Amino acid sequence: MKKRLFILIAMVQTLCCMAQTSVEARIDSIEMVMGEQVHVTVTVHAPAGARIDFPKYQRTQQLTPGVEVLEAHNEAPNIQVLTLTSFDENLYYLPPFAAIVNGDTCKSQSLALKVLGIDVDTTDYKKFYGPKDVQDNPFLWSEWAPLFWFSVLLLILVAVTCYLIVRLRDNKPIITYVRIVKKLLPHQKAMQEIEQIKADKMVTSENQKEYYTKLTDTIRRYIEERYGFSAMEMTSSQIIERLMQEGDQKSLDELRGLFQTADLVKFAKYSTMLNENDMNLVNAVEFINSTKSENQPTEEVVRPQLSEADQRSIKTRRWLKLVITLLVVAIVAILVYVAYGVWQLVA
Hints:
By secondary structure, the chain is of the alpha+beta class. It has three domains: about 20-115, Immunoglobulins (Immunoglobulin-like); about 140-175 and about 305-345; about 180-300. About 50% of the residues lie in helices and about 20% in strands. It has helices spanning about 1-20, 140-170, 185-200, 210-225, 235-245, 250-265, 275-290, 310-345; strands at about 20-25, 30-35, 35-45, 50-55, 60-65, 65-75, 80-85, 90-95, 100, 105, 110-115, 180, 300. A five-stranded antiparallel sheet has the order 1-3-7-6-5. A three-stranded mixed sheet has the order 2-11-8, with no helix packed on it.
């Protein structure tokens, strides 16, 4: 008994719901000439808040054989408008239009559409004409003007590029070579200079000032290259003080004696004995041998010094190459654009 009562209540609710929901379809004209269009408005009457879904139609979809749907759009959540057409003379039955309301499918009433033909008088042949010849499109300057001016720009860019290429060819490149030469170590240079002093027999020369000047300058240059400070611009005492942290005391004492004797000879007109000159020369050699360093590079990279004119020439060539590259890219782009535009207008 309870089960029957439940089914009865459900049926009553369904009928009530269906009574509240309806679908109405209206056509703006039941007649049309073939090829024309008519509009069908489908309106759903449902309670507020009801969910309404209309079917989706594709363009040229057959609503019924001979009648096509050109367009379907929703003017409101409950209104759908369909644009129909037909190219066959006939009286068409349009099936009910459906809509889904809260998951239930509701349908409208069916409609009719009469498509009328066009009467053609085939007895008067003068009304009919043969096919027309293919006609050329009129020349429009507005279509060709951009291509013309881009072509002029293209010619200008080509001329400028050719000029710059000639300039680049006339501006000869500056070719420089980097040489790697053998480098004498500081103690080797100093020993060569001392050997030259011996060869010139300056030890026994009467010009003691010249002898001690060359000998101390040799030692100063050796110290400058060996220890990395400006010994040529320092006094003897400053050099000894700077070397206190580098060598043993015995070598510095002998070097101090050499510098003191040289200062006396050069500034106080002191005269030395022959054996004293020999001893100072030996002290210089011993100082070099005791402080020499073999762990130094024996090769030197010699880079050529370019004049200002050569440097300007190199910079000019770089700019010319960059500008020529940019011009070539622009020329190719404009050429492609002009060719594509001409093809579109001619084809």
